[in-house]
Amino acid sequence: MMLVLGIETSCDDTAVALYHSKQGLIAHNRYSQLELYNEFGGVVPELASRDHSSKIIPLIKNLLKQNNFELLDLDSIAYTCGPGLIGALLVGAAVGRSLAYALDIPAIGVHHMEGHMLAPMLEEKAPSFPFLALLVSGGHTLLVAVKAIGEYEVLGESIDDAAGEAFDKTAKLLGLGYPGGPALAKLAEQGHDAVYKFPRPMTNRPGLDFSFSGLKTFALNTWESSDKSEQVKADIALAFQEAVVGTMLIKCKRALQQTGLKRLVIAGGVSANLALRAKLQTLMLENDGEAFYPSIEFCTDNAAMIAYAGCQRLLAGQNDSLAVKVYPRWPLFNLPDLH
Ligand code: KG4
Ligand code: ZN
User: Fold this and answer.
1) What average pLDDT does this structure show over 88-99?
2) pLDDT for 284-298, tens place per residue?
3) Distance 196 CA to ligand 2 centre (A)
4) Confidence band (pLDDT; 50, 70, 90) for 177?
5) Angle between helices 163-173 and 180-188 (to 10 degrees)
C-alpha cells in the first residue's frame, strides 16, 4: 500500500494530487496560470516558473490539510520531470525531490506523456493492456502501441505542429484567444456543415505520421478571401476541426488494422474534444472494439495522472536518485518497463 503525492508543473498548470495504491485517487487540485498570459497570447516561460514557485507549496499544504493528511503520511512522491518548459519542470522536480529527501521517502520523475496515456486508468471503466494510444496534446501528437507500462512502440507522430498547437494557432488567427482549442471547438458548434472542405494532410500516402501545420494556413487563406462574417468564422472552425478529427480517424483506423489491437485510448488535452471522442468511439464500435478516454478534468494537464503513473513505477521498485534532473525534450518513451 502506498500514498503518493503527485506534482505537475511542466507548463502552465500547477497541479497536485494524492493517489493511494488501494483506494485510488483521493483528491487533486490545480491552479491554472492562464490569466497571466491574456496579454501575451501564449505561455511566457519565465512567468510560468515564477508562478509555479509561489503556488506549489500552498497547494500541497492545502491538499493535505483538506484531506486530513500530514506530510508524514506520504509514502512517496511522483513529479513530472519532462518533457516541458525547463524552468517550470525544475520547480516541481526540486520541490518533489527535496520534500522526499526531507521525509526520507522515495521519489520518482514521471514522463508527462506517460501520465497522459495512463490517465484513463483513473476511470471506473479502465482499459486493459494491450491497447493503441492516440496522445494528442499541446506539444505532442503520437500513435503508440502499448503492450504494458514502459513497453511502448511509437507508430506515428506529427512532423510539425502538434494537434493542440494546430488548434491554438488556428484559433489565434481567428481571434479566439489562448488556449484556443476549447474556444474553437465551441465555435465549431455554430458552424454549418460542408461549407468548406479542408484537406486531410498525409492521408493519401501510407504511414502513420501527421502534419497539421498546413491546416492553419488553409484556415487563414479561407478567412482572408471570405467576407469575414461571424458565420464564416464558425464555418471555418467546423471545417478545421473536421479535418483534424477526420485525419486522426483515418490514421487510427490504419494503426488498428496494422496492429490488430482492439482497444483505443485517447488522451491528452485534445482528447477533451467531443467531436474527436464521438468519431473514435463510433470507429471502435464498428470494429468490435472499445474506446477509452479520461474524464474531461483529466484530459488536460493534472497531477492525478502523474501520481498514478509514478505509483505504478514506485510499486515496481523504481525510484530516482537524489539529483534533481529534468528533461525538457525527453526522447519519447525511452522509458524502462516494470520488470
Ligand atoms: O495536455 P494539455 O493540457 O497540455 C499539454 O501537455 O500540451 O493540452 C493542452 C492542449 C491545448 O493545445 C488546448 O488547446 C487543447 O489541448 N485542447 C483542446 C480542447 N481542450 C483542450 N483542443 C481541442 N478541443 C478541445 N475541446
Ligand atoms: Zn499535457
Assistant:
1) 98
2) 999 999 999 999 999
3) 31
4) confident
5) 70
Mutate which of 11, 80, 300, 305 for ligand 1 pocket (most atoms within 8 A of beta carbon): 300
Reported as type and span, the H/E element at residue 266 is strand 263-267
* Ligand 2 centroid distance, CA of 284 (Å): 24
104 phi-psi bin (left φ>0, alpha ψ -120 to 50, beta other)? left
Single-letter amino acid code for the residue at 37: Y
Q: Residue 73 is placed in which grid cell?
A: 503520511
pLDDT tens digit string along 252-268? 999 999 999 999 999 99
Using CA atoms, how far apart are residues 292 and 294, in angstroms rounded to an integer? 7
Strand partners, 133: 144, 265
Query: H-helix or E-strand containing 143?
Result: strand 141-148
Mind giving me the DSSP string for 128-140? PSSEEEEEE-SS-
Q: Which atom of ligand 1 is nearest to the CA of 164?
A: 12
Residue nearest to atom 24 of ligand 1 (CA): 273
250 pairs with which residues across the strands?
none
d(CA 167, CA 220): 13
- In the chain, the N- to C-terminal Cα span, in Å, equals 19
Q: Are strands 151-157 and 263-267 parallel, antiparallel or unpaired?
A: unpaired
92 C-alpha to center of ligand 2: Å? 15
Question: Contact at 8 Å (CB) between 81 and 321?
Answer: no
φ, ψ of residue 90 in degrees (nearest 5): -60, -35
Q: Are 32 and 13 in contact (CB under 8 A)?
A: yes
2 Cβ neighbours under 8 A, 6+ residues apart: 20, 21, 75, 76, 311, 314, 315
Instruction: Compute the distance from residue 299 Cα to the ligand 2 centre, in Å.
Output: 8
Polymer length in residues for the chain: 339
Q: Give every strand in the sheet of 131-136, ordered side by side.
A: 151-157, 141-148, 131-136, 263-267, 290-292
